[in-house]
Amino acid sequence: MCGIVGYTGPKQAYPIVLKGLKRLEYRGYDSSGVALMNDGKLSVYKKKGKVAELEDYMIGKDVSAHIGIGHTRWATHGEPSDRNAHPHTSANGRFAMIHNGIIENYAQIKNELTNKGYSFTSDTDTEVLLNFIENIQQHNDCSLEEALRIALKRVTGAYCILLVDSEDPETIIAARKGSPLVIGVGKGEHFLASDASPIIEYTKEVVYVNDYELAIVKPNELILKNLGNEKITPFITKLDMELAAIEKGGYDHFMLKEIFEQPSTIFDCLRGRLDAVSGTITMAGIDQHIEQLKAANRILIIACGTSWHAALVAEYVIEELCRIPVEVEYASEFRYRNPIVNKGDVIIAISQSGETADTLVALEKAKENGAFIFGVVNAVGSSIARISHAGAYTHAGPEIGVASTKAFTGQLAVLTMMALSIAIQKGSITQERYQQLLTELQDVPEKVDAILKNADELKVIAEVYKDASDFLFLGRGYNFPIALEGALKLKEISYIHAEGYPAAEMKHGPIALVDENLPVVFIATKDSYHEKIISNMQEIKARKGKIISIITEGDEVSPGLSNHVFSIPPADELIAPILSVIPLQLLSYYTGVLKGIDVDKPRNLAKSVTVE
Ligand code: F6R
């Protein structure tokens, strides 16, 4: 949430910062701004709206500077507006700062500052923190670094901040707690950003800054310290990512590109791990901890949003294959109640970004209670990946469209491999069933490819229902979480109200919504629940609802009950969710596009939810 970027070095800072903001725009896009420093003159420009509006506003301005910081905002404190946009300038005009996160005790600090005569030009917690730092600096007559260190000891909440000082024309000071920060190490230059996407074009050598660390960044020097002022040796990591992975590659939107990438992202996820010929799954994170996983009394899966839906699918799969009880928790609920975590419990955390604040804090809490944490994460090197004791990456590559698509199918692939590995080693499934599912999983990329070839059929359906005010998504068993995911995708991308329900549960309330105007999407692939879901379709048809069915090729019954059908290749019921979600992603995408919505940046959302 919120994207931050900074540059110090011999090049012109503005084009680098602006391009970086465009790459980070998925993190928030209600306003943006830059602070540029040229010969000790600090200039701050900011604008409500997307980065393109800032870019227009900057035309004709003097942007020459070798040091710059920029911010793209997802509002927390204060409505989206020019004055609440970052960077903020301190009262005396000497410092400028950008911030990603929330300062929870800002009201108390603001009070103290107001009593000292400070007034504020914005409604943000960021301006409060900046003036707090300024006040400490003036009062102690110390360096900015020292003032920052003192201030951060008083602050509660989450932050990644970048600060510049007009009296120190080549240094950016950064600090993080709970919000990500990556520093790119170039030749005589440094790049700072919320993730690696603004950096990859210039250098592949990066340092991931940890919580409670401060970075003093000059063109030729990078000093890392802890809040106790002790130096820490920066650990340089080589990025394993290509520039093409973060560009649209000819697609109209990142979301469409990411949907269409799924045959290759799922293949990449399985590659080197699953070998159906030799009947093996090799995943270091699992193999090294197999005894602990096999012996788990209970598995708790913690996640948010789409990742939470992957957790629900995993609950069905793990319980079926491994016979281990599974509980799925919203991270935001888990962290605030007093959950029972026993010795012998295993926690699986699922996250695309690896930075979701609720998930991260829930894990910290579980870790303090002695739980073993296994991370299923997409973003390499992210906070959740680092806090986990073991884990497996989904290898879906950078996901930039705000609505999660390819990360979800990657999560399902990893979790299914994980369940299969545990099950075969535990002896809870037969060798024959194991082998059959390995082969099925290996065939998924090809089947996804076949589904995508018929994407236009979904465009036609989207055209028919784009003006509907509500949608119902129904599924049973392994496809119930897919109904939830279909509804979430549609809400996010088309702003149409949608509900996902277990198809049988519909009778207990939502059926009251059904009339001739309500489109009802059934995820009705051939599985052990098929006859039951056919009865549910009859119930909707009897009430004149419009039925859109996702069915298995060759199903002769569902088309007779449906207004529209979309067929997917046959698959085992455990594997089917990885396929059945694809048409729902496409249905949402086309509906959003037909409604003229910016599907990569739908209103009010941000990709990486680093605030609670
Ligand atoms: C939905 C979506 C969100 C995320 C959720 C968790 O399309 O993207 O619901 O799934 O914010 O994010 P991660 O997986 O990054 O923890």
Please characterize this protein's 3D structure.
The protein has 612 residues and is α/β, with parallel strands linked by helices. The protein folds into three domains: 3-244, Glutamine Phosphoribosylpyrophosphate, subunit 1, domain 1 (4-Layer Sandwich), CATH 3.60.20; 248-442, Glucose-6-phosphate isomerase like protein, domain 1 (Rossmann fold), CATH 3.40.50.10490; 455-612, Glucose-6-phosphate isomerase like protein, domain 1 (Rossmann fold). It contains 21 helices and 27 strands. The strands form five sheets. Strands 3-2-4-1-10-9-11-15 form an eight-stranded antiparallel beta sheet, with helices on one face. Helix 10 links the parallel strand 18 and strand 19 (326-330). The longest helix is centred in the C-terminal third of the chain and has 21 residues, at 406-426. Bound molecules: fructose -6-phosphate (F6R). Fructose -6-phosphate binds at residues 304-307, 351-353, 356, 359, 403-404, 488, 492, 609.
Provide a concise account of the structure shown.
The mean pLDDT is 94. The chain is 37% helix and 25% strand.
Sum up the structure in keywords:
single chain; seven-stranded antiparallel sheet; Glutamine Phosphoribosylpyrophosphate, subunit 1, domain 1; 3 domains; eight-stranded antiparallel sheet; Rossmann fold; 612 residues; 27 strands; alpha/beta; binds fructose -6-phosphate
